[in-house]
């Protein structure tokens, strides 16, 4: 998309410069290409640094907070939006009642990132409608979804479960959380590395 705008800008510049001399046109093209290369490299560095930051935060707090295994209400989930030190800057999001730890993709879900509205929220309706601004302020039971929307939501949940660790369930108001035990492998990891 960014490249498209550069091409369009270049065409406009050519129309404006059409009556200019050849050396001036060549100099303008060279300057344009240099600016294009610099801005592309800055964008790539920004994306790379965002990914590195997310992985560093994930590693740093992995031992401090262990692998989260807990159920949360929507109010509790909102604290895990990547902004709070008390939660280890962790980022959790819920899809169809299942909570995922998406901290390792800080470049997407971190503050001021493309999917920051999904951080600390139930992302179900947002993903079904492909709009990140549909976050609900209260628990959403999703009963009004069509059959195709439910199938779409199940596919999103499957993709997230393949990419991110599952934390627990999003609790309906008035429900109690389930107690989770750590597996022997997880206990051994934390005993050896933390």
From TrEMBL:
Q: Where is it found, in Gene Ontology cellular component terms?
A: endoplasmic reticulum; membrane
Where does the chain cross the membrane?
A: 20-44
> In the record, what lineage is assigned to the organism producing the protein?
Eukaryota, Metazoa, Cnidaria, Myxozoa, Myxosporea
What the entry lists under Pfam families is as follows: Cyt-b5
> Which parts of the sequence belong to the Cytochrome b5 heme-binding domain?
72-171
Leader sequence range is none
UniProt cross-references to PANTHER family, sorted A to Z:
IP06960P-RELATED (PTHR10281:SF106), MEMBRANE-ASSOCIATED PROGESTERONE RECEPTOR COMPONENT-RELATED (PTHR10281)
User: Which family does the similarity line name?
Assistant: Belongs to the cytochrome b5 family. MAPR subfamily.
Q: What is this protein called?
A: Membrane-associated progesterone receptor component 2 (Trinotate prediction)
Query: What's in the keyword line of the UniProt record?
Result: Membrane, Receptor, Transmembrane, Transmembrane helix
